[in-house]
Amino acid sequence: MSKSLRLSEKWFHRGLWLVALVFASFLIGLGGTVVDDLPKVEKQLQLSDFMDKTASEALRNTIKASDKAVKEAGDVLEQSQLKLSVARADTVAARETFNNWLATRRVTQQADQDAELISRTQALDALKAKERAAGGTVEAQQQLILNAQQASQRAQIFLGEQEQAAQKKLDSESRQLELRVFLYRLALTLPLLAIAGWLFVKKRKGTYWPFVWGFIFFALFAFFVELVPYLPSYGGYVRYVVGIIITVLVGRQAIVSLNRYLEKQKLAEQLPDVQRREELSYDTALTRLSKAVCPGCERAVDLKNPEIDFCPHCGISLFDHCTPCNARKSAFSKFCHVCGTNAIKNIAA
Ligand SMILES: [Zn+2]
Ligand SMILES: [Zn+2]
Question: Residues 281-296: pLDDT tens digits?
Fold first, then answer.
């Protein structure tokens, strides 16, 4: 995976990265299929799993029947209230007529009208009795509604208590299930992560690097998609603690690597000029020069200044002179750009 400057090699590299991505996507697909075919431990739990089915069913039926009774009695009540008001109006009208008749009778003092007085009084009593009966029907319906409402409330309270108890059991069972699912997924993902870590450390620069990187992508995908979302939360504690631990580990590794790099760089800068140049790959040196940094110590250097032949920071030779023609040329060029003499052979000689 050296930084090549050859055009075709660059495009080959891009193609190989594509190979790595395609390889990773097929591995992810295969992994997903394998996980789908494994026996399922992730059964969805429900509240009804923890309730006495017959008892809760009976309570629900009671509530339903009571609500229906309330509605029916309400309809009948409306009808009887209407009948009651009609009966009341009838009584009021009849009483008014009777009172008028009575007043007339007192004035005329006709004794032969006593029989009519009796029949009129009886008719009025009958109307009053009808009104009373209608009132009784209304009260009976109101009683029915009250009974049904109270029965429904009692059943609801009882059902609520049962549901609360079931919810507690469901919560504890769900936590255990969550943990089981996580451990099961960890058992599948951990070996992949271990292999990916080993490949990253040992093989990421090898000949078959596209496959190595493809596998590393696959393992990372498995970690972030198949494992992290199933981490039990315990109110967020586990997630944050795991996040802190991983950040500390990664950060520590980065700090160690930085120090190791600086140490290596310091040692390299103490070596003789020729040996340092031999250890630098040609392409790496050219890439660094194209970015206007010293190939030896990676610090910025003004390469356009014709006065500067050596890096002012580490002392490595940046420009030298061709032995046969004495032209000033880059110390990293393999051939003199004026006379074409092989510069490396010349140094060795
Ligand atoms: Zn330097
Ligand atoms: Zn020359």
Answer: 888 899 899 999 999 8
CA of 278 to the centre of ligand 2 (A): 21
The whole-number average pLDDT for the span 120-146 is 92
Instruction: Give distance in angstroms: CA of 313 to centre of ligand 2.
Output: 28
**Which residues have CB under 8 Å from 142's CB, separation 6+?**
77
pTM of the model: 0.59
**Residue 319 bridge partners (DSSP):** 330
Once rounded to an integer, what is the mean pLDDT over residues 253-277? 90
d(CA 47, CA 274): 77
User: What is the rounded CA–CA span in Å between residue 9 and residue 3?
Assistant: 9
CB 243 within 8 A of CB 237: no
- Whole-angstrom distance, CA of residue 231 vs CA of residue 36: 19
Residue 42, SS3 per DSSP: coil
Tokens of 346: 């010349």
CA of 234 to the centre of ligand 1 (A): 54
Average pLDDT over residues 11-38: 91
Residue 342, helix vs strand vs coil: strand
Range list of β-strands (E), 290-349:
319-321, 328-330
What is the number of the ligand closest to the CA of 322? Answer: 2
Structure token digits, residue 202: 């040992």
Alpha carbons 133 and 80: distance in angstroms, whole number: 10
List, for residues 240-253, the tens digit of each pLDDT value: 888 899 999 999 99
